[in-house]
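Box 3.1. Reading complex inputs
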Amino acid sequence: MALLEVVDVSKVFPGVRALDDVSFTLQPGEVHALVGENGAGKSTLIKVLTGVYQPDGGQLRYRDEPARFDSPMDAQRAGISTIYQEVNLIPLMSVAHNLFLGREPRTAYGLLDEKRMFREAHEILLRYGVTTDVRRQLGTLALGAQQMVALARAVMIDAKVVIMDEPTSSLEPREVETLFGVIRDLHSQGIGIIYVSHRLDELYQICDAVTILRDGKVVHTGKLADLERLRLVSLMLGRDMSAVRHEGFTGFGGDHGGAEDAAPVLKVTDLNSRRKLHDISFAVRPGEVVGLGGLLGAGRSETIKAIGGAYPVDGGEIAVDGKALNRPTTVQAVKAGIAVQPEDRKAEGIVAGLSVRENIALAILPRMSKLGLVSDRKIDEVVRTYMTRLRIKASSPDQRVGDLSGGNQQKVLLARLLATQPKVLLLDEPTRGIDVGAKAEVQGLIDELAAEGLGVVLVSSDAEELVEGSDRVVVLRDGAVVGELRGDAVTTEALLETIAAAAVEAKEVGNDD
Amino acid sequence: MTTEAATATRPAIDLARVRAWLPKYGVYVAIGVLVLYNVLFTPNFLTWSNLRIQLIQVAPIVIVALGMALVIGTEGIDLSVGSVMALAAALIPLYLGYGVVAAILVSLVAGVVVGLVNGTLVARVGLQPIVATLALFVGGRGLALVISDGQLKDVRNDDLIYLGSGDFLGIPMLVWIAALLVLVVAFVVRRTVFGRRLLAIGGNRPATELAGVPVKRVLITVYVLCSVLASIAGLLAVARIQSSDASAVGLLIELSAITAVVVGGTPLTGGKVRVLGTVAGALLMQLVVATMIKHNLQPSTTEMVQAVIILIAVYVARERKSR
């Protein structure tokens, strides 16, 4: 008897098919991994399962009966509980109150029976390794403990299915062990668990089955033990490895041949940031494109932001052209010649309400002005240059950037970066969410800029793009460098292998072989 | 008026265009309608003495609203402007002994100090603007009362009286000053690096930060400007009524200023500042009150009409949920 079945479920948003005939089955007592990169459809699927979204096609079957959840409350009442990455409990209330929220024990007179509540809460939480005083405010607990409270709460409401969305992302190793203990316990009680995570080691340690999503489709579902790591990664990231490799699939040309002996334009040494980045070191020479590879959450975006001064750094050195920057602010980073294209274009890139002109000029206003007065003539010159060079399609420089297509928005953002005449360009997913034509143009532009002597750092979840665009690829996992691909070793296969390798097997690939 | 003409010629109204048009120009249309109504139905409306009174009354609101518009343009708000006016007013009689210039400078410095505190709380400490400025909204007036011993003080100084009640080329000095400040602020928003950065911060702060703009410095400057404008309004209030009363000067003006800004078409979500719209917003609210008074309507009715206008302004300017 299947516990929960998803049968040919589709979900369409304007312009996007977020879920395309997705099917999978969760058995009682099974820990089922749900994996996929950003935009693969994981969150949409979870939202369909928990009643946030209604499927546009297909159906859900719960305990062998067709089911329909009109709201998250509805799903919860049926026994489907979700634990999110960020704990969604009430930090100012006590641990016990949080645990019993909405189902508080009462005395014979209908008043809150706090004594019983505290006693029971204490007993329940002991099983989850939480020994703290249950009268404490939840917000004063460590994140791991808070997560345990959330989990205890989820299981308490007679859950049959528990969905865990990256439950370990904020946990210490010791807490992860406790969590796994609890999961094994749930497993033996016949509760089905859907486990979303990007940490391969964890998946192989705790999960029985796996379903891999890519671009809204299920690309694989089955026993996890039967699936090699390498194959799992290649299914997640790239096209099927056995499939034909199209040479020139991307808009990238060949090598850029950054001179091997040239002094690095960007040198990062032992970059550290609390729990997220550990001793990251690499260098970029002028004219070289260095790729940062790895799965979601490996620390690629954090590395880029830390270099650009937009992510807290605990230690390490960043040097541009040999000049060291000590924990730069964004202002200092831009001045030093670092230009960062953030991953989330809408949230951190463009200013949607302003015109193309204002967006391009944003970072160079001081250069475009005298005594604080802006010269629109100078700005127009620069804007015209970059609109032509990047072929930005807008009705005029005065058009709102928010009304442009994704590709043109990205080009406006690149124009802003280039206008600062940077020495290093840090690109985080430069071709995400833009159409094929613009994609090739952006890729061609990266080549061109490298040829002009710029140092480029490229992050991309598209394995082919990363391999074809980069001269070298530095591979990250869990915030640390685990390998580097050079020369002939810069291939999709080697990249996937390095990503898939277990932590203990981490090695440098491509020196001699 | 023009909307109606447009819809008449084209039966299928282009709703999207009307919606883009309304927040921008609706306030001017409303002023036009109101003026027309008054010209036709209100006796003695079109007299110079009446217009003069209206302009003198609206001038301090315009000055405070200019600063408020800048703050709102950064997605902030400044509740402390009324208290800043009281502070400036309380300081004037204390320093008038050193000359009128000294007294004015001291009250302006008070504005700078309050602005620095507000700006630092918002930009560096990271408090929400409404909370950060609430502190000085409460404390500022208290301080003003302490400074003035809670007493009304007569202020007799010829220069100040000229500022408050004098004319230049037949137009009150107050109106000249307000007009000059409107031009200055409009110029700052449109032509300066600071103005452009301010709009970018209101539009998307993280993006502006990543672009290497000194966001904190710009934000602090915005709050300082707002407070300085409020202290100008405060000292002008003293000049006009020829006395300083810290318990009354600028009372509730933050609400009038926010209303003027919102009715003028500046969105509370930031990223846009309509300077002329703000002036028009202040004028509109003033006209509404004047019209009601002239037609012997209760103040309570006036307040309800004001409420309706604010609701309409917020409604037409609300974020379109596109995409």
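In summary: The CA atoms of residues 89 and 147 of chain B lie 10 Å apart.
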